């Protein structure tokens, strides 16, 4: 019997088998055909299927927050979901619900609790005029249960010490708005339980001005409220151009003083508020008036108004909010002087 001379590694019959990674020894018997021992194919573990970007679009198609049954209907498998979560391609925000890693953290927390973002934070996302949001306010259908911690979907909300979290129970369904945030109209309704009427009116003014809601929708929305509250929330005006104007107009109405917003005066232009045809109230914001040219133009306007017999009062948002007694006294004195003139 003669043995074949082994070849260098990587050549001839001793080269590693590309599939199995092993070397094969060949024995040649005199007078017999050469044979190569057959190796049983080695079983390799099933590799997880990595789904393409099209499948991430499936979640976007569902509004950025997709339920398990929706993804299964779109062709996903339970294995696909588990692998996508493990690989970080998607996030299991709570049991049976998935979102993308790029989803805003605040929206993830609201979804993890089990509802939609509401109140001031939701209003800000719609571009409404509100104070800075504090805490997490979540709108949850009144029949829902199993609410979870905003930080861990394994922890029940009732077991999570979270004084900055408020649940707004609602009879509305999750279809009101997108899957993360309440609709503008429902967002305004959620403010009713958290904000005073003047701030709600300011937010509603901005929603009307930006076309987020209509006057008819707003009236219907507040129709079932107590009469006194309905009267206050009905004092909306889409002509207001800032939160400061809305707050001032509302507070004047509480003093029994009627004010018209954005009145055009010949040779001057529009003024923020006009009271009793002779009192002009201008409301300054730092972002708008910090440029020297704008500052000079405001002083010129004041001089022209004074020359024409108008009384001009100027206030800032900070004065209105933090120094209201002083502002109120100035307004009442000015109105009184006009009435006795």
Provide a brief overview of the structure:
The protein is of the alpha+beta class. The protein has helices at residues 53-61, 68-73, 78-87, 105-113, 119-125, 184-191, 197-209, 215-222, 227-233, 243-254, 286-289, 292-307, 317-322, 324-340, and strands at residues 2-3, 27-28, 65-67, 91-94, 97-99, 116-117, 136-141, 165-170, 259-265, 269-275, 279-284, 311-316.
Structural description of this entry:
The chain has 14 helices and 12 strands. The protein has helices at 53-61, 68-73, 78-87, 105-113, 119-125, 184-191, 197-209, 215-222, 227-233, 243-254, 286-289, 292-307, 317-322, 324-340; strands spanning 2-3, 27-28, 65-67, 91-94, 97-99, 116-117, 136-141, 165-170, 259-265, 269-275, 279-284, 311-316. The protein has a 4-stranded mixed beta sheet with strand order 9-10-11-12, sandwiched between helices. Helix 5 runs antiparallel to helix 6 (184-191) and helix 7 (197-209) packs across helix 10 (243-254). The N and C termini lie far apart (133 Å).
Give, in spatial order, the strands making up the sheet with the most strands.
Answer: 9-10-11-12
Individual helix count:
14
Provide the structure class.
Answer: alpha+beta
Q: Biggest sheet, in brief?
A: 4 strands, mixed
Percent of residues in helices: 25-40%
Form type? elongated
Estimate the mean pLDDT confidence.
85
